[in-house]
């Protein structure tokens, strides 16, 4: 029908020309027919040009739709935002873009080239396809406008740039798609695409040439091609370039001149020739553009077929896809939607997704977020709880994106949902397991009470939140070790459980009882509790703890010491509660156990004094204020100098010379005793080297060392730094090592030192539990009798007999005996008579510093020096 209409218009135009030709011949043809022909030709070309522009726009829309689909995919968004460390999912999505476009446009397109993912800073983080070396686009063009989109200064929308591809009807396009997440631009998807537009732009050899031009070329076309005549141009919908066609004005002028010339012949030839010319011109100006329009319509029909194929692909997708209109009404769903929800397509279409799928436990905030995004026409992605048709809940990862508005259908939205129920269930189980693990990590497995970590967190919260001063009780069980040693660890665990029960039932609401480790407990009292209330609670708990506990028919008895500290009154702060209560507990232990001590201002002064002393000890270590004093040892028979014992002294700048009794206990608490001993050891060896160098031979030097220092420190490595000549080194260990159970490391270490020439001596023998088995096991070179045994021998025959037995025991084991505390001539005579080998005490010499001992050694040096075998060096052992 339309073909007939165009033919009729053509015949009428010819007839009109015939009438005007008769009336005015050439003049009428020039002023009426020629402009009319020109206008008709221009209108047809404009319509034809707009049709071509729409065809190209549809082709580009298909590319944009597929590219936008890929840019909204979770693989691309997660990779660009750094949520996914692997590149393979994103690379697969980019390959889908490349492959899908090739399949749809195989006859008129090449591969999508140089497909890139670009971060907001312009860095390419992933690319697919080879970069065309002849690409007309600069790398910076791919990110043009990105900063404005990120800063909100321009619309967040795809962008298409054009460059000619070097052939008449081939075009090179650069497509950039913003990657958007939660309304923010996170990067770009960019790729280049060549298209063969011959079937769109070419209209035959005689037809005017149609050209694609940029905006800049369009604005300056007629200036640059002034000799080519006027042109028509039309903008490309949705892109920044134009189509330009020559209006063929030379042809119109030729037709006008022909009409003028033939006007004279009309009368002669009965208007046959003008009619023929008008017929030919009409066919060219009207019929041929109409044919081109029909050809364009056929291309559109092909595109509709391709859209149908895309719909089929959507049906085959594993993700649920839903299309809704601007009123949130479902227009279309795929098969995956039906499988996921249980609703058929007929049941879903026309319904609102919220009313159909959401239920009582769906998060209202998430629902409102979806409504706001749809209302604003922006993309959104959430995790939301939905319900199937049978009422079963399920979780989905839902992404909703607006589709390009249609003139007939308005704005629509595509929702893609992925079932994440299994992942959510696993996540919930993991959270439950983590919560249980956290609970266990904050509670003691044996007693069920909170543990030290719980207390540390609680105290930190109290300090941080400043919820007022608090009161704390520190508890340590007395004689608990006896239960473990005599009845076994099962009985000890039973006692700890009973104490935990007593604490739990004895505290008030608001109090917290904690087992901090071993047989130590803490009670943090509720707000407002005073130290007096804490003392009453401690006494009541002590009464319960001291009761006999029946374990499998055996009676367990323990006691407890309590240290109370309170921040009420301003003596201390909440952050000092634990260490202050610990100081009070230590005092309670010193006062005889099974008692309660409150942290008072007097105790606070003592603690501060200890803290000051602690800091001074560390300072003294750093500058070397600890130095050795030397007490000589003499042969019991000849009274000649046979050795010295190095004793630690602290040359304090303000307190003067301090003995170990004044600082050793604090040093032990700070675990600095080994460091002090190392300084004394090095300094003592250095002094001996100086004396030997002066010819003042020191036959032996003895050092006090604890078990830890002997096992942990390689003292032979220190000795190797000094030239000791014939001086022996003696290592003195306390008598307690004879009765304490020592591991193989200690025994092997003692044997190793003995093999390298060190003498092993037992110090303060008889002060504790003298052990014959221990002596035999350790087999020391020397046994030093404690001064408490030596002091009464001049007045008490029983003491004298006891010492005699000990000396005889040592002799029987092949051990030399040294007597400490020899303060009188009578002591020296008696100990010599009883069989001691070596004497040491104030009767002979007090401990003295290096200079005094140097003078003493010079005066005591024998005429003939006893040459002793040298100490084996480290490298000669």
From TrEMBL:
Residues 378-432 form the PAC domain. The chain crosses the membrane at residues 15-37, 258-280. Residues 306-377 form the PAS domain. One of its GO terms (molecular function) is catalytic activity. Coiled coil: none annotated. Residues 468-601 form the GGDEF domain. InterPro entries: Biofilm_reg_signaling, EAL_dom, EAL_sf, GGDEF_dom, Nucleotide_cyclase, PAC, PAS, PAS-assoc_C. It comes from the Bacteria. SMART domains: EAL, GGDEF, PAC, PAS. Residues 610-861 form the EAL domain. Signal peptide: none annotated. This is Uncharacterized protein. It comes from Roseobacter cerasinus.
């Amino acid at each position: 029908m339309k073909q007939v209409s165009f033919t009729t218009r053509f015949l009428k135009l010819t007839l009109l020309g015939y009438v005007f030709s008769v009336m005015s011949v050439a003049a009428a043809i020039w002023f009426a027919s020629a402009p009319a022909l020109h206008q008709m030709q221009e209108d047809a070309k404009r319509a034809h040009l707009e049709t071509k522009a729409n065809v190209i726009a549809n082709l580009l829309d298909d590319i944009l739709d597929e590219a936008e689909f890929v840019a909204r995919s979770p693989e691309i968004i997660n990779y660009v935002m750094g949520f996914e460390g692997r590149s393979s999912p994103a690379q697969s999505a980019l390959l889908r873009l490349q492959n899908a476009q090739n399949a749809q446009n195989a006859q008129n397109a090449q591969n999508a080239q140089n497909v890139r993912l670009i971060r907001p800073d312009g860095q390419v983080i992933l690319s697919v396809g080879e970069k065309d070396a002849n690409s007309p686009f600069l790398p910076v063009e791919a990110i043009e406008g990105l900063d404005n989109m990120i800063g909100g200064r321009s619309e967040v929308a795809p962008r298409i740039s054009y460059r000619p591809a070097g052939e008449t009807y081939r075009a090179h396009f650069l497509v950039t798609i913003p990657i958007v997440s939660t309304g923010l631009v996170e990067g770009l998807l960019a790729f280049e695409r060549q298209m063969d537009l011959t079937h769109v732009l070419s209209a035959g050899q005689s037809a005017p040439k149609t050209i694609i031009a940029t905006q800049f070329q369009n604005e300056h076309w007629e200036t640059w091609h002034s000799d080519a005549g006027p042109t028509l141009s039309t903008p490309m919908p949705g892109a920044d370039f134009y189509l330009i066609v020559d209006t063929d004005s030379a042809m119109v002028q030729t037709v006008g001149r022909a009409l003028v010339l033939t006007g004279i012949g009309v009368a002669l030839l009965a208007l046959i020739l003008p009619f023929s010319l008008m017929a030919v011109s009409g066919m060219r100006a009207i019929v041929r553009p109409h044919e081109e329009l029909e050809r364009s319509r056929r291309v559109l029909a092909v595109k509709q077929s391709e859209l149908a194929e895309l719909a089929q692909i959507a049906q085959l997708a594993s993700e649920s896809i839903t299309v809704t209109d601007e009123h949130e009404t479902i227009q279309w769903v795929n098969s995956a939607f039906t499988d996921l929800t249980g609703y058929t397509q007929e049941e879903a279409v026309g319904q609102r997704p919220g009313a159909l799928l959401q239920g009582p436990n769906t998060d209202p905030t998430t629902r409102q977020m979806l409504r706001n995004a749809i209302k604003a026409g922006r993309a959104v992605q959430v995790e939301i709880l939905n319900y199937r048709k049978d009422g079963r809940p399920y979780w989905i990862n839902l992404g909703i994106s607006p589709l390009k508005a249609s003139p007939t259908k308005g704005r629509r939205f595509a929702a893609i949902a992925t079932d994440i129920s299994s992942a959510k269930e696993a996540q919930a189980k993991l959270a439950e397991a983590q919560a249980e693990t956290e609970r266990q990590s904050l509670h003691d497995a044996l007693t069920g009470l909170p543990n030290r970590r719980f207390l540390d967190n609680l105290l930190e919260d109290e300090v941080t939140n400043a919820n007022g001063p608090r009161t704390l009780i520190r508890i340590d069980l007395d004689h608990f070790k006896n239960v473990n040693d005599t009845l076994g660890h099962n009985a000890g665990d039973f006692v700890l459980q009973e104490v935990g029960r007593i604490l739990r039932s004895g505290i008030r609401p608001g109090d917290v009882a904690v087992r901090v480790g071993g047989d130590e407990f803490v009670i943090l009292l509720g707000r407002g509790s005073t130290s007096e209330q804490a003392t009453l609670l401690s006494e009541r708990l002590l009464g319960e703890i001291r009761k006999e506990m029946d374990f499998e028919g055996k009676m367990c008895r323990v006691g407890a010491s309590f240290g109370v500290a309170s921040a009420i009154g301003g003596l201390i702060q909440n952050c000092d509660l634990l260490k202050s209560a610990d100081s009070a507990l230590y005092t309670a232990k010193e006062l005889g156990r099974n008692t309660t001590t409150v942290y008072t201002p007097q105790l606070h002064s003592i603690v501060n004094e200890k803290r000051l002393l602690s800091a001074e000890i560390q300072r003294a270590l750093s500058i070397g204020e600890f130095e050795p004093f030397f007490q000589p040892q003499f042969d019991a028979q000849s009274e000649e100098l046979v050795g010295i014992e190095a004793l630690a002294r602290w040359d304090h700048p303000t307190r003067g010379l301090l003995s170990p009794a004044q600082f050793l206990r604090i040093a032990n608490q700070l675990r600095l005793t080994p460091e002090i001993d190392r300084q004394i050891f090095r300094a003592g060896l250095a002094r001996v080297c100086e004396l030997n160098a002066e010819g003042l031979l020191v036959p032996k030097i003895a050092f006090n060392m604890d078990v830890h220092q002997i096992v942990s420190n390689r003292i032979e490595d220190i000795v190797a730094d000094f030239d000791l000549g014939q001086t022996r080194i003696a290592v003195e260990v306390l008598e307690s090592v004879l009765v304490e159970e020592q591991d193989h490391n200690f025994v092997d270490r003692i044997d190793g030192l003995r093999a390298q020439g060190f003498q092993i001596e037992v110090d303060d023998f008889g002060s504790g539990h003298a052990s014959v088995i221990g002596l035999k096991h350790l087999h020391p070179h020397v046994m030093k009798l404690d001064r408490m045994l030596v002091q009464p021998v001049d007045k008490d025959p029983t003491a004298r007999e006891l010492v005699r037995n000990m000396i005889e025991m040592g002799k029987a084991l092949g051990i030399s005996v040294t007597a400490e505390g020899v303060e009188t001539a009578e002591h020296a005579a008696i100990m010599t008579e009883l069989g001691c080998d070596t004497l040491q005490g104030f009767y002979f010499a007090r401990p003295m510093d290096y200079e005094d001992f140097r003078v003493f050694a010079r005066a005591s040096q024998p005429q003939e020096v006893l040459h002793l075998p040298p100490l084996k060096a480290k490298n000669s052992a």
